[in-house]
Design a protein that fits this description.
197 residues, alpha+beta, four-stranded antiparallel sheet, 2 helices, 11 strands, 36% strand, globular
Length: 197
């Protein structure tokens, strides 16, 4: 096989991989369960990586003590599945956490970034006011590949202001295996879905 022919085959293979990635992303957006997540303010973005709004939801930092029967088992690098339910405002919230997909309902898959165990300083004894040593609370920080929303410089800054004013919700598509992709944003109650093509 000649050198130009090898280069053409390599280029075709790379193009095929890119088309498969884009097609997989489009399929997940179209067929996954759509959920909406409230957002919370976070520190400013890293300008070296381009213009984007930094996103964080209540699902990113969870106290898992009451969400599982073994809260201390999640360590940095572990895969975690967060089972969700929709609340009365339309946002989705955590109801339990698992090390495997629960196979019922909607569950989002993430990676544990940090895990720590702290004593609950609010634990008190009986009416005599004798303070007991606090119960252990287990908290995890999770990444879902939903932490950045790329936009132009001006749009990213405007989105961060709207996020800080609680005017944004993140619209996410979660597939049957728990993988999540961003579909768009809900701004002041109005959907702004991203177009892929």
């Amino acid at each position: 096989m000649t050198r130009p022919m090898r280069l053409i085959l390599i280029a075709l293979a790379m193009t095929g991989v890119l088309i498969a990635m884009a097609g997989g992303h489009a399929l997940q957006r179209a067929t996954g369960t759509e959920i909406r997540l409230d957002m919370v303010p976070v520190d400013p973005r890293d300008l070296l990586l381009g213009h984007y709004a930094t996103l964080e939801t209540p699902l990113h930092r969870l106290d898992v003590t009451d969400l599982t029967d073994a809260p201390g088992r999640f360590a940095r690098g572990d895969t975690i599945y967060v089972a969700l339910r929709q609340d009365e405002t339309g946002a989705w919230e955590a109801v339990s956490v698992h090390d495997r997909h629960p196979r019922e309902g909607v569950a989002i898959r993430g990676k544990v970034l940090f895990s720590n165990s702290l004593r609950d300083a609010a634990a008190w004894g009986d009416e005599s006011g004798v303070r007991e040593s606090g119960a252990r609370r287990h908290r995890v920080t999770i990444r879902y590949n939903l932490e950045r929303y790329y936009a132009s410089r001006d749009d990213a800054l405007a989105l961060e202001h709207m996020r800080d004013e609680a005017r944004l919700r993140l619209i996410v598509s979660v597939n049957a295996s728990g993988a999540a992709v961003i579909k768009g944003l809900e701004i002041d109650g109005e959907d702004r879905l991203d177009r892929l093509f």
